[in-house]
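cron nightly-structures :: item 1 of 1
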Amino acid sequence: MESSMRAMSYHRSTQRVVLSTALACSVAWLWVNPACAATAAPAANPSVAADDVNPADLPEADLAIKAEPAGQWTGFLTRQNMLGDIGGLRSSLAAYGVTLGLTETSEYLNNAKGGLNRGGDYDGLTTATLKLDTLKLFGLAGGTLNISAISVHGKNLSADKLGTLQTASGIEADTGTRLWEAWYQQKFLDETLDFRVGQQSIDQEFMVSQYASTLVNTMFGWPAVPSYDMPAGGPAYPLSALGIRVRVHPTDAITVLAGVYDGNPAGTNDGDPQRQNAHGTNFDLHTGALYISELQYAVNPASLGQTESANPGLPGLYKLGAWYNTQNFADQRYGTDGLSLGDPNSNGTATEHSGNYSVYAVADQMIWRQAPDSMRSVGVFTRLMGAPGDRNLISFSANAGVTLAAPFEGRDADTVSLALGYVKVGSGAAGLDLDSGNRVRNGETFLEATYQYQLTPWLQLQPDIQYTLNPGAGQNPNDPTLRMGDTLVWGLRTNITL
């Protein structure tokens, strides 16, 4: 996400040292603690019992070869998590129904042309998640308690060097460590109904496109309309808000989501919202309400509780949703005296509108699969959103793209994606530009190509390139009378499951 403030360099340096030290200590612990050693790989043919095999019959059998103790790093490249069992910690927690998740996303992005400045920045995100299964913990079936925290480090290329409305990376945020989510979910009626209550980031469930999630640009995660039009950018990464969500599955094909949340996760409309709720612990319920609902229809779906469909048809998921915020929203062009806010005679006080809203549609559809049991497939997605142009900076946003899974033989876990994003500045903001003698903002378009390369089960490398046309919708944020050149961003992201 784009942010307007930066933490002091001392804090950035300190945080890098702390993270590096923690990783080094983890590696050292793995080296000296035998309990962390990964188990040996299973036999290539598990159907053959060990007692049925005579070692002397194996072609590699050699009496001169002596058994060696398993090395500390045996299985290191094939385990699911880089740190393995962390000295028995994960397995000990699992016995009580507790799952520990640790991930690190790090990236270097560089602006090769246009924008505000040329050059590159490092950006990183560490996420820690604890999930508690209440059945194992104290015998309550269907319950899940989720607590997560995030630590953002590095700098934001979009604010420093791009000036684009559609920010280059979905992990961009103000540096710091904060509580992210803390909620409890309970399932009922054979999992056809569930409730979630607590501190939630709604970008994890609403407006989600499965195929868009492989891309780096922010707009393929939390789109431009809610990012700019909801107070504080809405209860989405890196912020969250108190609320309650209900989900109903009347059939395997139909899902209904509905929720109500605090209207402003920052608790105020003044200043940088991420600084106003710097630790994620405001827990505010006094800044209006956000209502959101979404209807989902699945094509060739899996049965409830299953991950794969028995139907050989190509799966798809279509969503239609809307949200409404009860706060008052300032007009982007006119004051309470009826004059343009760009008129020298204006009183400078924007007229207010009661409430704000948006409607949206999301479509994910697989259009080709090599075989019913093949990982190689092609999926397409599109996401469209609209909002009133008088009270919002962005009145329309769109995403569309195509993703190829398993693009090469032997690379079943890889994906290659090509997509574009577009935003349109609302009529009020564009009118104010005209009244003020500034460059009139209109639309901004970007293209992105990315490849996710699964190097090991826990390490993913992702080269990425993005090109933005008419950045800032035609206006330089540092000087609204000027425009910027088109930007070209290249970079590399790493995703590590710790």
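cron nightly-structures :: done
Residues 97 and 172 are 33 Å apart (CA to CA).
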